[in-house]
């Protein structure tokens, strides 16, 4: 049997490719920050309801068109989500609704904080709102967690019509929406729909991150919501890790002031658009109607395929065919896949056009049982 392990196509993590990180400019800005305020960045930040570096919150406020009082900064958006889950689950009940599939780490966080997670099937234009209505009519959830722009793992973008209908349901049935938007600015095709927070600021807590638009290594993520909730998150944060890193926040603030974030977004969009287009074409050829959507941005395309193999058998056959996949079931509440289907998340951002095509064709062979 051929040994493919050294050349497996890695359809695994959503990590930005090195080519889009503007490391020289980041290093220059960091040096400037170190020269200008060495004591502040190497000292503890003030405590007592510290929602984050003031310059950074002012810049983020400008970027999002919101009052900085409504912003809380943490060490990456996953940590924001953890604090938010701690704050919301229990206070507003234990039921949490998510898209199915959803971001696996988010699902794990909700479960760790005692959430009972129920999935709402994700369609090509967003969650199935009939299913959502049935669920919320029976029981008000603590919140509905959604990734409306270029969803991880499916790549789906929620249509404007669905966004408006979703916030209508949130108002009618009195539930909160948590929208997670790290990929929103990475749009390669089409026009952006309004954010859920723009449509219903009173019903929506937003979380976002500089990981995909500047640098994941800086670990800067943030929440936008009502000022009281942001203070409560700061109190939870202080009891856990005091404050977010002063150095990382100062560099992030400078990168926003200097326009480096915008240049970095432009660089990512220019570099990733051809990868997106080629990935959509290759995935369409390989999976036909199984392709969940043509995302128009972000990092992922995905497919639901029918197979009589178990997931473990499918993953093993994929490796024999030269492809490493994440376990698709991990993206579903209760790890339960739709009956008779397997879910394939295909991150395209870090793969050459050739590698993506090779990987998609190999998976099509596994689906068709040409590989055993
Ligand atoms: C939807 C979503 N939310 C949150 C995160 C975590 O990002 P951060 O680096 O800001 O912690 C990711 C990372 O891949 C993600 O895809």
Automatic annotation (TrEMBL):
InterPro entries associated with the record: Aminotransferase_I/II_large, HTH_trans_reg/aminotransferase, PyrdxlP-dep_Trfase, PyrdxlP-dep_Trfase_major, PyrdxlP-dep_Trfase_small
GO molecular function: DNA binding; helicase activity; pyridoxal phosphate binding; transaminase activity
Pfam families from the UniProt entry: Aminotran_1_2
Keywords: Aminotransferase, ATP-binding, DNA-binding, Helicase, Hydrolase, Nucleotide-binding, Transferase
Keyword tRNA-binding: no
Domain Aminotransferase class I/classII large stretches: 47-331
Gene3D superfamilies noted in UniProt: Aspartate Aminotransferase, domain 1, Type I PLP-dependent aspartate aminotransferase-like (Major domain)
Domain of life of the native organism: Bacteria
Protein name, UniProt field: DNA-binding transcriptional regulator, MocR family, contains an aminotransferase domain
């Amino acid at each position: 049997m051929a040994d493919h392990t050294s050349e497996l196509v890695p359809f695994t993590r959503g990590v930005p490719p090195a080519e889009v990180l503007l490391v020289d400019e980041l290093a220059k800005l960091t040096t400037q920050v170190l020269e200008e305020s060495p004591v502040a960045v190497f000292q503890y930040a003030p405590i007592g309801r510290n929602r984050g570096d003031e310059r950074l919150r002012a810049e983020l406020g400008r970027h999002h068109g919101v009052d900085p009082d409504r912003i809380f900064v943490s060490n990456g958006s996953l940590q924001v989500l953890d604090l938010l889950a701690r704050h919301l689950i229990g206070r507003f009940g234990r039921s949490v609704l998510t898209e199915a599939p959803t971001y696996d780490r988010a699902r794990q966080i909700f479960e760790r904080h005692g959430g009972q997670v129920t999935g709402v099937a994700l369609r090509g234009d967003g969650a199935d709102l009939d299913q959502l209505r049935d669920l919320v009519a029976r029981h008000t959830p603590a919140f509905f967690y959604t990734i409306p722009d270029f969803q991880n793992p499916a790549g789906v973008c929620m249509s404007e019509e669905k966004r408006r209908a979703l916030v209508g349901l949130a108002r009618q049935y009195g539930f909160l929406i948590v929208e997670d938007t790290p990929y929103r600015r990475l749009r390669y095709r089409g026009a952006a729909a309004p954010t859920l927070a723009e449509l219903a600021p009173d019903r929506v807590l937003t979380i976002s991150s500089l990981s995909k638009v500047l640098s994941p290594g800086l670990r800067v993520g943030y929440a936008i919501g009502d000022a009281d909730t942001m203070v409560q998150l700061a109190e939870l944060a202080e009891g856990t890790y005091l404050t977010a890193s002063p150095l990382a926040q100062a560099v992030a603030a400078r990168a926003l002031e200097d326009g480096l974030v915008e240049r970095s977004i432009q660089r990512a969009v220019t570099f990733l658009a051809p990868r997106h287009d080629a990935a959509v074409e290759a995935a369409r050829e390989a999976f036909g109607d199984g392709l969940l959507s043509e995302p128009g941005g972000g990092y992922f395309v995905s497919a639901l395929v029918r197979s009589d193999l178990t997931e473990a058998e499918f993953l093993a056959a994929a490796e024999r065919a030269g492809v490493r996949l994440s376990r698709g079931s991990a993206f579903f509440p209760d790890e339960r896949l739709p009956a008779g289907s397997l879910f394939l998340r295909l991150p395209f951002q870090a793969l050459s056009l050739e590698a993506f095509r090779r990987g998609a064709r190999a998976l099509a062979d596994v689906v068709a049982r040409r590989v055993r």
